Amino acid sequence: MSTAMNTPYPHLxxxxxxxxxxxxxxxxxxxxxxxxxxxxxGFQKLAAFYAERAKGGVALIVTGGISPNLSGWVAPFAGxxxxxxxxxxxxxxxxxxxxxxxxxxxxxxxxxxxxxxPLAVSAxxxxxxxxxxxxxxxxxxxxxxxxxxxxxCASLAQQAGYDG
Length: 164
Known about the structure:
Blueprint: E1 16-17, E2 22-23, E3 28-29, H1 42-55, E4 60-66, H2 84-99, E5 103-108, E6 121-122, E7 136-137, H3 140-159
Parallel strand pairs: 3-4, 4-5, 6-7
Antiparallel strand pairs: 1-2
EC number: 1.3.1.34
Organism: Alteromonas australica
GO biological process, one term: fatty acid beta-oxidation, unsaturated, even number, reductase/isomerase pathway
């Protein structure tokens, strides 16, 4: 009898076909914000950090939240994906993870009323209990623009080499 059958999780290390890609196993590193996007040389540090996890056997990594537009920033200079220049910077991360046999997905995150900056927008102008800034309520047109920003962000993430 194989060792896998003697464990309480016999499928954990088995490949998983997601349809659009196959994971080498079923281990996932959930999203966490590391704050490296804002640092000088931060993308190289992120690439090394995530690549080490892939090298250790993690099949799928989910990045910390990356904003689709300026108003969705968590804080000034936080991660965002709004241009080909941003996609090019992210390529070092995806290349490093892929070189170690891992897959990586980019979490698109609009911080809404939790944005720690005066440009924050949300569904309503209700201030978050954890930030000093009151967001501006989104108009119908601003909602449509934000949806378009998500679409553009997802397209740029694909161009950067993200797997999802």
